[in-house]
UniProtKB/TrEMBL annotation:
PROSITE patterns named among the record's database cross-references: EAL, RESPONSE_REGULATORY
Key words, A-Z: Phosphoprotein
Full protein name: EAL domain-containing protein
Lineage: Bacteria, Pseudomonadati, Pseudomonadota, Alphaproteobacteria, Rhodospirillales
UniProt superkingdom: Bacteria
Name of a matching Pfam family: EAL
SMART domains: EAL (SM00052), REC (SM00448)
Organism: Marinibaculum pumilum
Residues bearing the modification 4-aspartylphosphate: 58
InterPro entries the UniProt entry points to: CheY-like_superfamily, Cyclic-di-GMP_PDE-like, EAL_dom, EAL_sf, Sig_transdc_resp-reg_receiver
Tagged with keyword Acetylation: no
Protein backbone atom coordinates (compact mmCIF):
# COMPACT_ATOMS: atom_id res chain seq x y z
CA UNK A 1 0.00 0.00 0.00
CA UNK A 2 1.30 3.47 -0.91
CA UNK A 3 2.48 5.45 2.13
CA UNK A 4 0.42 8.58 2.69
CA UNK A 5 2.39 11.82 2.63
CA UNK A 6 2.09 13.90 5.84
CA UNK A 7 -0.36 16.77 5.57
CA UNK A 8 2.27 19.24 6.80
CA UNK A 9 5.59 19.44 4.99
CA UNK A 10 8.13 22.10 5.90
CA UNK A 11 11.37 23.35 4.38
CA UNK A 12 13.74 25.54 6.40
CA UNK A 13 16.14 27.81 4.52
CA UNK A 14 18.85 29.06 6.90
CA UNK A 15 22.60 29.20 6.45
CA UNK A 16 23.12 28.49 10.17
CA UNK A 17 22.87 24.68 10.48
CA UNK A 18 22.09 24.84 14.21
CA UNK A 19 19.01 27.00 13.62
CA UNK A 20 17.89 24.96 10.63
CA UNK A 21 18.14 21.78 12.69
CA UNK A 22 16.29 23.38 15.61
CA UNK A 23 13.34 24.39 13.42
CA UNK A 24 13.25 21.01 11.66
CA UNK A 25 13.35 19.13 14.98
CA UNK A 26 10.58 21.24 16.52
CA UNK A 27 8.43 20.71 13.41
CA UNK A 28 9.17 16.99 13.34
CA UNK A 29 8.06 16.53 16.95
CA UNK A 30 4.59 17.88 16.14
CA UNK A 31 4.06 15.76 13.03
CA UNK A 32 5.65 17.72 10.17
CA UNK A 33 7.85 16.18 7.51
CA UNK A 34 10.69 18.70 7.82
CA UNK A 35 13.88 19.35 5.89
CA UNK A 36 16.55 22.00 6.53
CA UNK A 37 18.75 23.41 3.74
CA UNK A 38 21.52 25.98 3.92
CA UNK A 39 21.67 27.49 0.42
CA UNK A 40 19.27 28.95 -2.13
CA UNK A 41 20.36 26.30 -4.65
CA UNK A 42 19.51 23.48 -2.24
CA UNK A 43 16.23 25.24 -1.46
CA UNK A 44 15.24 25.30 -5.13
CA UNK A 45 16.12 21.61 -5.44
CA UNK A 46 14.01 20.82 -2.36
CA UNK A 47 11.07 22.72 -3.86
CA UNK A 48 11.42 20.71 -7.06
CA UNK A 49 11.20 17.46 -5.08
CA UNK A 50 8.20 18.48 -3.00
CA UNK A 51 5.55 21.17 -2.71
CA UNK A 52 5.86 22.22 0.96
CA UNK A 53 2.89 23.42 2.97
CA UNK A 54 5.17 25.59 5.14
CA UNK A 55 8.46 27.43 4.63
CA UNK A 56 10.66 28.98 7.32
CA UNK A 57 12.91 31.53 5.62
CA UNK A 58 15.99 33.37 6.84
CA UNK A 59 16.10 36.70 5.00
CA UNK A 60 19.90 37.01 5.17
CA UNK A 61 21.58 34.31 3.10
CA UNK A 62 25.08 34.45 1.60
CA UNK A 63 23.93 33.42 -1.89
CA UNK A 64 20.55 35.23 -2.02
CA UNK A 65 18.69 37.76 0.06
CA UNK A 66 15.16 37.20 1.32
CA UNK A 67 13.50 39.38 -1.30
CA UNK A 68 15.03 37.27 -4.08
CA UNK A 69 13.75 34.10 -2.43
CA UNK A 70 10.28 35.61 -1.98
CA UNK A 71 10.20 36.63 -5.64
CA UNK A 72 11.15 33.08 -6.62
CA UNK A 73 8.33 31.64 -4.48
CA UNK A 74 5.86 34.13 -5.95
CA UNK A 75 6.89 33.20 -9.50
CA UNK A 76 6.27 29.55 -8.64
CA UNK A 77 2.81 30.42 -7.36
CA UNK A 78 3.70 28.89 -3.99
CA UNK A 79 0.78 28.46 -1.55
CA UNK A 80 3.07 27.60 1.37
CA UNK A 81 2.58 29.35 4.68
CA UNK A 82 5.69 31.43 5.37
CA UNK A 83 7.50 32.28 8.57
CA UNK A 84 10.13 34.97 7.95
CA UNK A 85 12.94 35.20 10.47
CA UNK A 86 16.21 37.04 10.64
CA UNK A 87 18.44 39.10 12.88
CA UNK A 88 17.51 42.32 11.09
CA UNK A 89 15.47 45.15 12.57
CA UNK A 90 11.83 44.28 13.26
CA UNK A 91 10.67 47.00 10.84
CA UNK A 92 12.67 45.45 7.99
CA UNK A 93 11.08 42.09 8.78
CA UNK A 94 7.61 43.64 8.86
CA UNK A 95 8.09 45.37 5.50
CA UNK A 96 9.49 42.15 4.00
CA UNK A 97 6.30 40.45 5.13
CA UNK A 98 4.24 43.12 3.40
CA UNK A 99 6.30 42.65 0.21
CA UNK A 100 5.56 38.93 0.34
CA UNK A 101 1.84 39.50 0.87
CA UNK A 102 1.74 42.06 -1.94
CA UNK A 103 3.07 39.29 -4.20
CA UNK A 104 0.35 36.85 -3.19
CA UNK A 105 2.32 34.89 -0.59
CA UNK A 106 0.85 33.75 2.73
CA UNK A 107 2.96 35.12 5.60
CA UNK A 108 1.79 33.79 8.97
CA UNK A 109 4.53 35.31 11.14
CA UNK A 110 7.76 37.30 11.27
CA UNK A 111 10.28 36.43 13.98
CA UNK A 112 13.42 38.25 15.07
CA UNK A 113 16.30 35.90 15.88
CA UNK A 114 17.00 34.28 18.27
CA UNK A 115 13.72 32.37 18.00
CA UNK A 116 12.52 30.30 20.94
CA UNK A 117 11.58 26.67 20.37
CA UNK A 118 8.29 27.18 22.24
CA UNK A 119 7.39 30.10 19.98
CA UNK A 120 8.05 28.01 16.87
CA UNK A 121 6.05 25.10 18.24
CA UNK A 122 3.06 27.32 18.98
CA UNK A 123 3.22 28.92 15.52
CA UNK A 124 3.50 25.64 13.65
CA UNK A 125 0.82 23.98 15.76
CA UNK A 126 -1.61 26.87 15.26
CA UNK A 127 -1.07 27.03 11.50
CA UNK A 128 -0.84 23.31 10.74
CA UNK A 129 -3.18 21.75 8.23
CA UNK A 130 -5.35 18.89 9.51
CA UNK A 131 -4.08 15.42 8.71
CA UNK A 132 -6.74 15.05 6.05
CA UNK A 133 -6.96 18.24 4.04
CA UNK A 134 -10.21 17.29 2.31
CA UNK A 135 -12.34 19.05 4.91
CA UNK A 136 -15.23 20.50 2.96
CA UNK A 137 -18.40 22.44 3.58
CA UNK A 138 -20.41 19.24 4.15
CA UNK A 139 -18.08 18.25 6.97
CA UNK A 140 -18.34 21.73 8.44
CA UNK A 141 -22.15 21.74 8.20
CA UNK A 142 -22.19 18.41 10.01
CA UNK A 143 -19.81 19.77 12.65
CA UNK A 144 -22.17 22.68 13.33
CA UNK A 145 -25.16 20.34 13.59
CA UNK A 146 -23.28 17.99 15.92
CA UNK A 147 -21.97 20.89 18.03
CA UNK A 148 -18.35 19.92 17.39
CA UNK A 149 -17.47 23.63 17.32
CA UNK A 150 -16.89 24.74 20.88
CA UNK A 151 -15.30 27.68 22.68
CA UNK A 152 -12.16 28.32 24.63
CA UNK A 153 -11.87 31.52 26.64
CA UNK A 154 -8.83 33.78 27.02
CA UNK A 155 -9.02 36.25 29.91
CA UNK A 156 -8.67 40.00 29.50
CA UNK A 157 -6.75 41.61 32.37
CA UNK A 158 -7.48 45.17 33.52
CA UNK A 159 -4.06 46.71 34.02
CA UNK A 160 -5.04 49.33 36.60
CA UNK A 161 -5.75 46.70 39.27
CA UNK A 162 -4.66 43.41 37.61
CA UNK A 163 -8.17 41.96 37.71
CA UNK A 164 -9.81 39.74 35.09
CA UNK A 165 -12.69 41.75 33.62
CA UNK A 166 -13.74 39.55 30.72
CA UNK A 167 -12.86 36.84 28.22
CA UNK A 168 -12.45 36.51 24.49
CA UNK A 169 -14.38 33.53 23.10
CA UNK A 170 -12.23 31.59 20.62
CA UNK A 171 -13.93 29.06 18.34
CA UNK A 172 -12.39 25.59 18.06
CA UNK A 173 -13.46 22.65 15.89
CA UNK A 174 -12.81 19.29 17.50
CA UNK A 175 -13.14 16.99 14.49
CA UNK A 176 -13.90 13.35 15.31
CA UNK A 177 -11.29 12.01 12.86
CA UNK A 178 -8.77 14.83 12.43
CA UNK A 179 -8.60 16.33 15.91
CA UNK A 180 -8.44 20.10 16.29
CA UNK A 181 -9.05 21.97 13.04
CA UNK A 182 -7.63 25.51 13.35
CA UNK A 183 -10.00 28.46 12.87
CA UNK A 184 -7.89 29.90 10.05
CA UNK A 185 -9.05 26.85 8.05
CA UNK A 186 -12.70 26.49 9.00
CA UNK A 187 -13.69 30.18 9.28
CA UNK A 188 -12.69 31.01 5.65
CA UNK A 189 -14.41 27.76 4.62
CA UNK A 190 -17.56 28.90 6.43
CA UNK A 191 -17.39 32.27 4.68
CA UNK A 192 -16.93 30.72 1.23
CA UNK A 193 -19.65 28.12 1.67
CA UNK A 194 -22.34 30.38 3.15
CA UNK A 195 -22.18 28.72 6.57
CA UNK A 196 -20.67 31.66 8.44
CA UNK A 197 -24.05 32.93 9.65
CA UNK A 198 -24.86 29.60 11.27
CA UNK A 199 -21.37 29.28 12.76
CA UNK A 200 -21.60 32.80 14.20
CA UNK A 201 -25.05 32.09 15.66
CA UNK A 202 -23.90 28.86 17.35
CA UNK A 203 -20.76 30.50 18.72
CA UNK A 204 -22.72 33.52 19.93
CA UNK A 205 -25.25 31.27 21.68
CA UNK A 206 -22.47 29.45 23.55
CA UNK A 207 -20.90 32.77 24.49
CA UNK A 208 -24.21 34.14 25.81
CA UNK A 209 -24.73 31.06 27.97
CA UNK A 210 -21.22 31.49 29.33
CA UNK A 211 -21.95 35.11 30.24
CA UNK A 212 -24.98 33.96 32.19
CA UNK A 213 -22.87 31.37 34.04
CA UNK A 214 -20.37 34.08 35.02
CA UNK A 215 -22.98 35.81 37.20
CA UNK A 216 -22.05 33.59 40.13
CA UNK A 217 -18.42 34.75 39.88
CA UNK A 218 -18.88 38.41 39.01
CA UNK A 219 -21.93 39.91 37.26
CA UNK A 220 -19.67 42.51 35.63
CA UNK A 221 -17.65 39.93 33.67
CA UNK A 222 -18.22 40.04 29.91
CA UNK A 223 -17.31 38.02 26.84
CA UNK A 224 -16.00 39.10 23.42
CA UNK A 225 -17.08 37.27 20.25
CA UNK A 226 -15.54 37.59 16.78
CA UNK A 227 -17.83 38.27 13.84
CA UNK A 228 -17.14 38.26 10.11
CA UNK A 229 -17.53 41.11 7.66
CA UNK A 230 -20.00 38.82 5.88
CA UNK A 231 -22.12 38.77 9.04
CA UNK A 232 -22.53 42.53 8.72
CA UNK A 233 -24.18 42.08 5.34
CA UNK A 234 -27.04 40.26 7.08
CA UNK A 235 -29.72 42.83 7.86
CA UNK A 236 -31.20 40.54 10.56
CA UNK A 237 -27.94 39.99 12.47
CA UNK A 238 -28.63 42.57 15.19
CA UNK A 239 -32.17 41.27 15.76
CA UNK A 240 -31.03 37.65 15.98
CA UNK A 241 -28.23 38.34 18.43
CA UNK A 242 -30.48 40.51 20.59
CA UNK A 243 -33.13 37.74 20.60
CA UNK A 244 -30.50 35.22 21.76
CA UNK A 245 -29.57 37.54 24.62
CA UNK A 246 -33.23 37.79 25.65
CA UNK A 247 -33.63 34.00 25.51
CA UNK A 248 -30.54 33.51 27.68
CA UNK A 249 -31.37 36.31 30.10
CA UNK A 250 -28.20 38.25 29.28
CA UNK A 251 -27.84 42.00 28.80
CA UNK A 252 -26.26 42.81 25.40
CA UNK A 253 -23.82 45.28 26.99
CA UNK A 254 -21.95 42.34 28.54
CA UNK A 255 -21.03 41.09 25.07
CA UNK A 256 -18.44 42.77 22.86
CA UNK A 257 -18.46 41.97 19.15
CA UNK A 258 -15.02 42.05 17.56
CA UNK A 259 -14.42 42.86 13.89
CA UNK A 260 -10.97 43.08 12.31
CA UNK A 261 -9.82 46.45 11.05
CA UNK A 262 -9.52 45.12 7.49
CA UNK A 263 -13.06 43.70 7.54
CA UNK A 264 -14.54 46.87 9.03
CA UNK A 265 -12.92 49.13 6.47
CA UNK A 266 -13.38 46.98 3.34
CA UNK A 267 -16.85 48.48 2.79
CA UNK A 268 -17.18 51.35 5.31
CA UNK A 269 -20.64 52.55 4.31
CA UNK A 270 -22.21 49.10 4.63
CA UNK A 271 -20.24 48.34 7.80
CA UNK A 272 -21.42 51.55 9.48
CA UNK A 273 -25.09 50.67 9.07
CA UNK A 274 -24.63 47.20 10.56
CA UNK A 275 -22.44 48.43 13.39
CA UNK A 276 -24.86 51.20 14.35
CA UNK A 277 -27.71 48.67 14.58
CA UNK A 278 -25.62 46.49 16.89
CA UNK A 279 -24.78 49.46 19.12
CA UNK A 280 -28.46 50.43 19.25
CA UNK A 281 -29.21 46.93 20.55
CA UNK A 282 -26.72 47.55 23.37
CA UNK A 283 -23.70 45.54 22.20
CA UNK A 284 -20.17 46.89 22.59
CA UNK A 285 -17.97 46.88 19.48
CA UNK A 286 -14.25 46.33 19.15
CA UNK A 287 -11.95 46.88 16.18
CA UNK A 288 -9.52 43.96 16.22
CA UNK A 289 -5.92 43.65 14.91
CA UNK A 290 -5.62 47.43 14.70
CA UNK A 291 -2.50 48.72 13.01
CA UNK A 292 -2.02 46.19 10.22
CA UNK A 293 -4.79 47.45 7.93
CA UNK A 294 -5.05 50.60 5.90
CA UNK A 295 -7.88 52.50 7.58
CA UNK A 296 -7.65 56.24 7.99
CA UNK A 297 -8.22 57.95 11.31
CA UNK A 298 -11.13 59.82 9.75
CA UNK A 299 -12.89 56.55 8.91
CA UNK A 300 -12.17 55.10 12.34
CA UNK A 301 -13.67 58.18 13.98
CA UNK A 302 -16.89 57.65 11.99
CA UNK A 303 -17.29 54.05 13.18
CA UNK A 304 -19.24 53.40 16.41
CA UNK A 305 -16.55 51.31 18.11
CA UNK A 306 -16.15 51.28 21.87
CA UNK A 307 -12.81 49.43 22.00
CA UNK A 308 -9.60 49.14 20.00
CA UNK A 309 -7.29 46.12 20.11
CA UNK A 310 -3.65 46.73 19.18
CA UNK A 311 -2.33 43.99 16.91
CA UNK A 312 -0.06 41.46 18.59
CA UNK A 313 2.82 42.13 16.18
CA UNK A 314 3.36 45.56 17.76
CA UNK A 315 2.75 44.32 21.31
CA UNK A 316 5.20 41.45 20.93
CA UNK A 317 8.03 43.79 19.89
CA UNK A 318 7.22 46.83 22.04
CA UNK A 319 10.11 46.22 24.46
CA UNK A 320 12.69 45.50 21.76
CA UNK A 321 11.66 47.77 18.89
CA UNK A 322 11.56 51.55 19.20
CA UNK A 323 9.09 51.71 16.33
CA UNK A 324 6.68 49.20 17.89
CA UNK A 325 6.92 50.98 21.22
CA UNK A 326 6.10 54.30 19.56
CA UNK A 327 3.15 52.75 17.72
CA UNK A 328 1.71 51.27 20.92
CA UNK A 329 1.99 54.64 22.68
CA UNK A 330 0.57 56.64 19.76
CA UNK A 331 -2.35 54.26 19.15
CA UNK A 332 -3.22 54.28 22.86
CA UNK A 333 -3.20 58.07 23.03
CA UNK A 334 -5.24 58.35 19.82
CA UNK A 335 -7.81 55.81 21.00
CA UNK A 336 -8.23 57.54 24.35
CA UNK A 337 -8.73 60.85 22.57
CA UNK A 338 -11.55 59.15 20.64
CA UNK A 339 -12.94 57.80 23.94
CA UNK A 340 -12.11 54.19 23.08
CA UNK A 341 -10.74 51.70 25.59
CA UNK A 342 -7.50 49.99 24.50
CA UNK A 343 -6.70 46.28 24.67
CA UNK A 344 -3.27 44.84 23.84
CA UNK A 345 -3.15 41.21 22.69
CA UNK A 346 -0.13 38.94 22.50
CA UNK A 347 1.44 39.62 25.93
CA UNK A 348 4.24 37.07 26.27
CA UNK A 349 6.25 38.23 29.28
CA UNK A 350 6.24 40.49 32.33
CA UNK A 351 8.36 43.20 30.68
CA UNK A 352 5.77 43.65 27.94
CA UNK A 353 3.00 43.94 30.54
CA UNK A 354 4.97 46.61 32.44
CA UNK A 355 5.54 48.52 29.21
CA UNK A 356 1.82 48.45 28.42
CA UNK A 357 0.98 49.82 31.87
CA UNK A 358 3.42 52.68 31.34
CA UNK A 359 1.88 53.36 27.90
CA UNK A 360 -1.57 53.71 29.45
CA UNK A 361 -3.14 50.60 27.88
CA UNK A 362 -6.38 49.64 29.62
CA UNK A 363 -6.52 45.85 29.25
CA UNK A 364 -4.29 43.04 28.01
CA UNK A 365 -4.44 39.40 27.05
CA UNK A 366 -1.86 36.83 26.01
CA UNK A 367 -0.13 33.60 26.95
CA UNK A 368 1.84 35.21 29.80
CA UNK A 369 -1.46 36.10 31.48
CA UNK A 370 -3.19 32.84 30.54
CA UNK A 371 -3.65 30.51 27.62
CA UNK A 372 -7.26 30.02 26.51
CA UNK A 373 -9.15 27.70 28.86
CA UNK A 374 -12.33 25.65 28.55
CA UNK A 375 -15.46 26.96 30.20
CA UNK A 376 -15.23 24.65 33.19
CA UNK A 377 -11.84 26.14 34.11
CA UNK A 378 -12.98 29.78 34.14
CA UNK A 379 -14.00 29.82 37.82
CA UNK A 380 -10.63 28.51 38.95
CA UNK A 381 -8.82 31.04 36.76
CA UNK A 382 -10.83 33.98 38.15
CA UNK A 383 -10.32 32.84 41.74
CA UNK A 384 -6.55 32.82 41.23
Amino acid sequence: MEERMPANRLIVLDDEPAIGSLVANVAGRIGYAAEAVASFTDFKNALARDDPTHVVLDLQMPDADGVEVLAYLADLGSRARLILMSGVDARVLEVAGQVAQDNGLDVIATCVKPVRAAELRDLLSTHAYPEKAEIDSDALAMAVAREEIHLHFQPKLRLSDRRIVGFEALARWRHAAHGQVPPDIFIPLAERSGLISEVTQRVFGQAARTVRSLDALDPALGVSVNISSIDLQDGHLADRLAATCRDEGVKPDRITLELTETAAMSDPSRAKAGLVRLRLKGFKLSVDDFGIGYSSLALLRQMPFSELKIDRSFVRDCTTSRDSSAIVGAVTAMAHALELSVVAEGVEDADILTHLVEAGVDEAQGYWISRPVEVENIADLVSK
